[in-house]
Amino acid sequence: MNSSTAEIVYDIFQQICKIPRPSHYEGAIADFLCRFAESLGLEYDRDGNDCVVIRKDATPGFEKAETVVLLNHMDMVAVSDGSRPFNPLADGIETFVCDGWMHAKGTSLGADNGIGLSMALAVLADSTIQHGPIEVLTTTNEEDGMTGAAALSADFIRGRKVINLDSEDYDTITIGAAGAYIQKATLPIKRIPTPEGLAFFRVCVSGGQGGHSGVDINKMRCNAIKTLCNALFTYKYIPHSDKESERLLFSSINGGEANASIPSRCEAIVGVDESCESEFVTQMQRRAAMIERLYSMSDPDVSLTIEKVAAPDAVFEDNDIPAIIDSIPCGPLSMRDDMPDTVMTSNNIGVIASQDDVVTISCHTRSFDNSEMTNLAEGIASHFMSFGATTETLMNTPGWQENAESSYLELVDNTFCDILGFHPRKVAMHFVLEAGYYVEKYPGIEIACIGPRIIEPHSARERVELNTVDGIWEVLVELLKRLSIV
Question: For residues 113 and 167, is the Cβ–Cβ distance under 8 A?
């Protein structure tokens, strides 16, 4: 193939799109990676968490060069806009191209991090690229706990120069990332037969843009879980119409699809006293109007709807859910003084689900300050426990900051400039990368994160700009060449 084009990258990406690969279910994509290595006659290792490293010898004459690691993750945040049936455990991703951008039909695209992975595999398949020894490391569960990276053995990779192809900003080199703390609370509930004298309604917040709970958290988008529970909290706990608060009993509440996404939809089935039916509807309609005004600029399609439904057979005996959610901080909480418009600390309520005798709630806390992140997450855990919930830490990964003045980053910067005609920005991002684990695990490691322009990751509007894929491919090929010269 001609390494000046990225056609092989797109071909590999289409193969990857056929394989379901949500976080925690990466066995099939790991199988694909192993078969890919075997088809090229390359050495590979696969660990007990399905992380895979594929090794390719240097181009003849460049064996003395330092080993370069091409780093990616194989899982994706698989979410749908509800426009068509989609089972993330069984269905592939259907793509289409419009005006120079690749999209998916009704789902997230998985360009995060499938495009970067496709670039790394294309390097393995291309015999015309000059390079030193290469390791393509692909980890599991990056999007929902980073357990793959956390459990890597100290000898799983040999290289100490890392090109992480998991960036989403074409004109940047990411040299730092926030830490992350994901926790899940499990609240026991007791279901009782539905009492007489209740009217039931389906209350739903929907139409939000959703998005990445790190890079999109400062865009003031609607968190459907928080918004719905705030509306119900207002009815239950704030006196209205000269009456004390009335009963509000839940039959179900479900919202969000992934811990790392801003939830675009949340729905609850709730019952109120029949005597208060009109009052409840009026209150919800007022909240709906407030929500539309609040998000008219940042999330214009979001809405709250209310629909009367038949009474269910059972309801939750306790109804503290609105109070639990109302007191959890959500969105950007502080900003970095040294980087304009960069969030320092944030929290996102990602998923709420009621099933059988429990309600589960996930929170994704991020910060560049590890102490601030831990204190916030522990405070949220204490809040959950005060309502009788237990909490489980799914991820607690440190932040990462590279030396912006290193000779390695200077080489990456100069390669960008020579190939694309501009010096990229060096930025720290309010998303989470596995780099914090590698810095702790592999002494002396250096990491530069680059990638094409990916818009709205972790949502059904995710798309990647194709000409930036071509550009980053050219940068990658040239960078490998320069790193091969001892």
Answer: no
Quote the mean pLDDT of the chain: 93
Q: Is 339 exposed, middle or buried (0-12, 13-18, 19+ CB in 10 A)?
A: middle
d(CA 96, CA 94): 7
The β-bridge partners of 418 are none
- Distance from chain centroid for Cα 440: 23
Q: How far is Cα 435 from Cα 448, in angstroms, rounded to an integer?
A: 10
Angular region, 110: left φ>0, alpha ψ -120 to 50, beta rest: left
Check: CB of residue 248 under 8 Å from CB of residue 203. Answer: no
Question: d(Cα 209, Cα 325) in Å, to the nearest integer?
Answer: 20
Contacts of 213 (CB under 8 A, 6+ apart): 259, 260, 261, 262, 346, 348, 350, 364, 366, 458
Global pTM? 0.77
Per CATH, the architecture of 7-178+399-484 is what? 3-Layer(aba) Sandwich (3.40)
Long-range (24+ apart) CB contacts under 8 A made by 254-257 are 254/352, 254/353, 254/354, 255/205, 255/224, 255/225, 255/228, 255/351, 255/352, 255/353, 256/224, 256/225, 256/349, 256/350, 256/351, 256/352, 256/362, 257/77, 257/78, 257/79, 257/80, 257/351
Contact status, residue 328 vs residue 383, Cβ threshold 8 Å: yes
**CA 238 and chain centroid, separation:** 35
pLDDT of residue 242: 47
CATH class as words, domain 181-397: alpha beta
319 pLDDT band, cuts 50/70/90, is confident
Asked if residues 82 and 224 have their Cβ atoms less than 8 Å apart, the reply is: no
Residue 393, beta-bridge partner list: 183
Domain chopping of the chain, boundaries: 7-178+399-484, 181-397
> What CA–CA distances, in Å, run from 28 to 32, 217, 305?
6, 32, 40
- Taking only the tens place, the pLDDT of each residue in 271-315 is 999 999 999 999 999 999 999 999 999 999 999 999 999 999 999
> DSSP assignment of 248-313, as one string?
EEEEEEEE-S-TTB----EEEEEEEEGGGHHHHHHHHHHHHHHHHHHTTTTSTT-EEEEEEEPPPS
The Cα-based distances of 168 to 118, 365, 397, 399 in angstroms read 15, 20, 20, 18
